[in-house]
Amino acid sequence: MAYAIKAPARYVQGAGELDNLGLNTKKIGSKFFTIVSAGGQKRFGDRITASLAATEGHTAVFATFHGEATKEEVAAMIASCGDSGCDAVIGAGGGKVLDTAKAVADSLNLPCVIIPTAASNDAPCTGVAVLYNDAGVVVKALMTKHDPELVLVDTELIAAAPERLFACGLGDALSTFFEARACHKNGVKCMARGQVSNTGLMMARLCYDILIRDGRNALDAVREHKVTRAVENTVEATIYLSGVGFVNGGLAVAHAVNDGLAYEPQCHDMYHGEKVAFGVMTQLVLEKGDPAEFDEVMAFMKATGLPMTFAQLGIKELNHENLHKAAEIAAGPKESARNLIADLTADDVYNAMLKADELGRKFLGE
Fold first, then answer.
1. Whole-angstrom Cα distance, residue 118 to residue 95?
2. pLDDT for 259-307, tens place per residue?
3. How far is CA 202 from CA 167, 242, 248, 345, 359, in A?
4. Residues β-bridged to residue 130
5. Interval 16-46: pLDDT, tens
6. What are the two backbone dihedrals, phi and then psi, of residue 130, each rounded to the nearest 5 degrees?
7. What's the confidence (pLDDT) of residue 267?
């Protein structure tokens, strides 16, 4: 099988870059269907309008996102965008806003501009739109025909977001190298529709190295809403390198565990990156690899507050039936966990999750 590599057409990152939106969209469109939450429009909608207006003929038509990236929400946005006469789509906000924008743009074959306002996951740089039901459970991952035309990251907005969201991005990005390494080793086809290239694996490794080097200092800066070199480096890792790294590197156990934990009600208030981080520990248990590597990962997770135990995931009362259900989902025939071990069983995942919790509690001194 051939190698394949996908990435956004253009990536722009820096403090205050939202005010350069108009300059960066000159050749993308002129009338932009802009999907944003009501709160987001209040916080930065005027900046989007002003920045687009600075380029002659550019306007924004705002559409209010209602909180969940469901098929119904996407269908309503598609109809509204079609009626508006817009020739491009902007998604500005968190991951579900961005997924909705990508789905709308893909359906109408329009260019898509992505403006993340938090570095909570690596969705901005991918041609993947995850759709949910009203309960917040994933129902579909739409593979779009094209990656975003532009991903514009204003690191001042990122640093102003809650620190927990920034930490979630660290957790999501932490998985990128380990999952790509597994897919590369096992000759798995990645989301770029080819085998994992050396380039894809290299980007995933660089993502990990930056996290370990700069992630702690970046989180400290974000607590004070400051943009530092460590923040810039880490945002590049959590948004660009993690996003492009996972598309070109593939997924394995870490993300499968995230999918499974959606069926444990006690985890309902946990974010994607937090559940993925625990999934990294589960995957490392299954790999039975280098203990020093595992210690490095756990030290990073402890320092950044990522969940290492069931209790930190919100599971205060261990329900083995729910936990085994989560393991069954994670080990399902269409799940990415099989990219690590082809004949993986639910019991394998279940026991590895128990072991990860045990190791986490021991590392934390509990």
1. 8
2. 999 889 999 999 999 999 999 999 999 999 999 999 999 999 999 999 9
3. 23, 11, 10, 30, 29
4. 141
5. 999 999 999 999 999 999 999 999 999 999 9
6. -90, 125
7. 95
Fill in the DSSP letter of residue 196.
Answer: P
Average pLDDT, integer, range 79-108? 97
In degrees and rounded to multiples of 5, residue 189 shows phi and psi of -75, 130
Rounded CA separation 89/199 (Å) = 30
The overall pTM is greater than 0.90: yes
Q: Please report, for the chain, the start and end positions of each structural domain, with discontinuous segments joined by +.
A: 11-159, 163-363
CB 151 within 8 A of CB 10: yes
How far is CA 347 from its chain centroid?
Answer: 28
| List of residues 6+ apart from 288 with CB closer than 8 A | none
Entry field: residues in the chain: 366
CA 359 to each of CA 271, 337, 355: distance values in angstroms, whole numbers, following the listed order: 22, 21, 6
Under CATH, which number does the domain 11-159 receive? 3.40.50.1970
Separation CA 5–CA 247 (nearest Å): 8
Q: Are 91 and 112 in contact (CB under 8 A)?
A: yes
E strand or H helix at 296: helix 291-304
Q: How would DSSP label each residue in 47-111? A: HHHHHHHTSTT-EEEEEEE-S---HHHHHHHHHHHHHHT-SEEEEEESHHHHHHHHHHHHHHT--
CATH class of 163-363: mainly alpha
Q: Whose structure tokens read 């993300």?
A: 255
DSSP H/E element including 165: helix 163-185
Burial class (CB in 10 A: 0-12, 13-18, 19+), 288: exposed
Which residue do the tokens 């690191």 mark?
155
Query: E strands within the chain?
Result: 11-14, 31-37, 59-65, 88-93, 112-116, 128-132, 138-143, 150-154
| pLDDT score recorded for residue 238 | 98
Report the amino acid identity of residue 19: D
